[in-house]
Write a structure and sequence with these properties.
Elements: H1 10-39, E1 41-45, E2 50-54, E3 65-68, E4 74-77, E5 80-81, E6 84-85, E7 89-93, E8 98-102, E9 113-116, E10 122-125, E11 138-142, E12 147-151, E13 162-165, E14 171-174, E15 177-178, E16 181-182, E17 186-190, E18 195-199, E19 210-213, E20 219-222, E21 234-238, E22 243-247, E23 258-261, E24 267-270, E25 282-286, E26 291-295, E27 306-309, E28 315-318, E29 321-322, E30 325-326, E31 330-333
Antiparallel strand pairs: 1-2, 3-4, 4-7, 5-6, 7-8, 9-10, 10-11, 11-12, 13-14, 14-17, 15-16, 17-18, 19-20, 20-21, 21-22, 23-24, 24-25, 25-26, 27-28, 28-31, 29-30
Length: 334
Amino acid sequence: QQRQQPQQHPQRQEHQQRQKHQHQQQRQEHQQQQLQRRQRAELYDPSTGVWVLTGNMNTVRAVHTASTLFNGKVLVSGGIISSDDSNSSELYDPSTGVWTLTGNMINSRTYHRASVLNNGKVLVTGGISNSNLQFASAELYDPSTGVWTKTSNMSTARAVHTATILNNGKVLVAGGENAGGILNTAEVYDPSTGLWTKTGNMSTGRMTHTATVLTNGKVLIAGGDNSVVPFNTAEIYDPSTGLWTNTGNMSSVRTAHTATLLLNGKVLIAGGDNTVVPFNTAEIYDSSTGLWINANNMNVERVNHVASILTNGKVLVAGGSGYSGQLDSAELYA
């Protein structure tokens, strides 16, 4: 004999359906709020220490690039939009607080790099495509026309690399990863010819490292990882010879940290992680000695944050992720 299932009371069914609908509505509202937060932009005023909201971007995006143009506007390009990589770009006008769409990149890309050249154009290099392949391609944005055009390809496809404007106006691209693994190769782009030339290899293949132009024109590469092991090593690139030399090791391994050139010519390294645990530690590199010294710790552990040197010489560190997830906090190094 089959046991009959007890029938639910109509009012109880209605209550459960109403609860389910409310939960769905709350989930949708939460998702919408999350999307709106990712569209938001805000401004920091060093004179007051206060953040204020400004106009929202037209598109929700993450892992994009942001470049300050010579006209004072900010170009944002690419990134992840609704789980897909994007080729869209938009401009922020500080005088109005408004974002406007501009020309699309030729390729959708994320984990790419953007460099403002001495001629005012923006060079975008590498990155990852929607099909999860790394690009060797590069393209140029012209602020006077709002149009992107192709330039010559790098010799090697790469993403999560560094791209650094040298004092001679050329661009040094170093490291990163592609389908073949972690890269120790480097190459230089000449804006006057639009061509790439290979230069000396780093001693270590690395990605999510930092690259900083020192006051002597050389480039300091620090930290990073090979997707498994994080590094505390650092090396120096000399543009006059195209060679790399090892310099002093940091006191801690770190990846996805920030590096900021201070007004005294030293380099502040802050935060990052060991691929597992985020750090609040900081250290300073002295190019005159090639040595690192520990600096005061940040108030909060953070990784994948940003750091900006202010006109008063202080360093603003903001956002990133910590033990508790994504951070909205900011702090100053003086």
